[in-house]
Every structure is written in structure tokens, then in C-alpha cells.
Amino acid sequence: MTASAAQPRTLPDLSVAELASWMQGNGFNAAHAPRVIRSLLAAEQPKKRADFLLPEKLEEPLKAAFAAEAGALAQKQVSADGTAKLLLCLRDGRTVESVLMPDYREDRASGCISSQVGCAMGCDFCATTQTGFERNLTSGEIIEQFCHLRREAHLVGRVLRTIVFMGMGEPMLNLKNVLPAIERIADPKLGAFGWRQITVSTVGIVPGIEELRNADLGVHLAISLHAPDDATRADLLPIGRRFDVGEVLEAADRYQEQSGRITTIQYCLLEGVNDSLAQARDLARLLAGRRMHVNLLRYNPTGLSLKGRSYLPSSLEQTEAFLAELRAHGTVTHLRRARGPDIDAACGQLRRRASLGV
Hints:
The protein is an alpha/beta fold and 358 residues long. 35% of the residues lie in helices and 20% in strands. It has helices spanning 3-6, 16-25, 33-42, 56-65, 139-155, 175-186, 206-215, 230-236, 245-259, 277-287, 316-328, 349-356; strands at 71-78, 84-90, 95-102, 108-112, 116-118, 133-136, 159-165, 198-202, 220-224, 263-269, 292-298, 333-336. α5 (139-155) packs across α6, α7 packs parallel to α9 and α10 (277-287) packs parallel to α11 (316-328). It is elongated.
């Protein structure tokens, strides 16, 4: 059952055209619609109805027809490094996670947004997949996360400057809601966040990459590769049995050719699994001639995996060696330090803990 079937629609779920149509159909001036949506998206603090500067006769019908929020903050964890994990409770009682990460500049922050409740991808080292897939998020529930992250950044004296769809779920399997959310968030006349400040990440859903390319939004693309060979990748990411490494990178090539955006290759280093120097050389060979950047990730352990394994992060020594090997072969590579190791920082951990009541 979808959220829309269980609950009335919320203001964050509405496009300007939909809200304008409702206003016109109820005898109101449709010109008020952009102001309402803009107020929701641009707010550093939750807006009261009066803040929309609407005619009095419109306020009550609007309030009666649509809920002002698609979700409420249920829990927050803040790490010693400033990383904040937010658990939002949606209107049907389900929960979803978002993360605010402080930037190296003291006045900026980055946000990580979820696209689904749970995940069906079955990636063996991911905590989200252990709770299974429940449903897609609506565009309003995606926008609600953005609004909460923007407010959270403001509370700590920062400005939310970039967001990445790399939280719970696979964005390419929910583009029907992800794309409208991006359009409203980035539209200069609405959220005014900027297309180039948004990254959509995927485990390698080739048709989704093509759909994103056809949408021509100009956002960045990130590929969660995690291994240079098909056998290792398919063992970690079941989707690797459907789309091999070559197919995924070719789809990224096509996206990059049209968008002009450099693709990011996400690679989470797991001790003894994908962190050998031979694998670094294989990855470098794959990317030779491609203008793609590798983002090495430090793994946050999540306990036993679906296959009963306990993955560990690569040692600092091996991580540095892997990084050096890639760079020695001409691959542009960055190491992203682990965020929030003292809280439930890995995707899905806080939600799982909350569901267990611990």
C-alpha cells in the first residue's frame, strides 16, 4: 500500500502545476501556488501558514486539503565530528534516514538523502538491506528530508551546499518520484539549490542511468562499483549478476557524454575482499581513458551480513596503499574519511536500532 493511498497528500508532494490546478479549481488565484512551494523549500525554519502571505480566505481551505509536512523528526544522533543522522517518521508510521555532514569549510555542509523505505538490492555489507524493502518514497517525503537537512545545517551555523541520493534505497528504482523532487529542489524559482549541487548514486541500474540521462537535468552521477571484476562485485552486490561492470561503465560514459558531468566511482574498501593492490590496478585499467573520479570510502561495520559475514574496514595502511596504487596509474582518487563512527552512521543502522527499541 502506498503512502498516497493511506494518507491525504501533503504540500511537499505537490508540484506547482498541481497546486495551481487545485487553487483554480477551488476558485482561487493560481498565481499563489509558486509562493507556497517556494516557502516550503527555501525555509530555514518551519513556516507557519501566515508566512505564506496568502489571502485569508485561502488559508483554511489549503490547510484542510493538504498536510503541511510529509514527515516529522523522530530521532537525531550527533557525532563528535559534527555528523548528524536524522530519523524521520513518515505519515504512515514508517521511518527513513537522512544525514548531515559538515564540510571542510566551517560554513558549509553536505546532505545524504534516502529514496526508499528500506532497500531491495541485497548488497551484502549494507545495513539497510537487512530490513528489506517496504515502499518507494513520494516526492514530498524526499523533499521533506531536504527541508530538515537545510534547517539542521542552519541550526549549527552552516549552509547546506550539496546533497547526494545515497541514503536508504536505490534512486534509479524510484525515479518517478526522485526526478520531480530534484526539479523542485533545484529550480531557481523554487528551491534554488542548483542542479550541479545534486548527485544521484546507483548500484548500477543501467535502465535507470539511461532514464536519468534522458531527463537531462544536469545533475551528477555516482556509481557504487565496489569491485573491478564481475565475480567479486556480484558476490557483494547481487545486481552485478544482471549488469556487469562493463555495461555499467558504458552507461556512465553515455551519461557523462551528454551531461558533461564527471562520474564519481564509489568504492568501499573491505578488508581482504576488494582492497588488494592487484584489484587497485584492475580498477585503474578499467578507468583508463575515462574522466571519472574514484571516491574511496571507509567502511562502518554493520554486524553480520545477509550471508552471515562480518566485514571489516581495510586497515589504514592498506587503504593508503590502495590509494597510492590508483594514483600511480593515473587514476584521480580521493579518500573520504569515515563519518560518525561513534553513532549509527552506516546507512540503515539508526532505523534498524529504533525498530528494535534499543
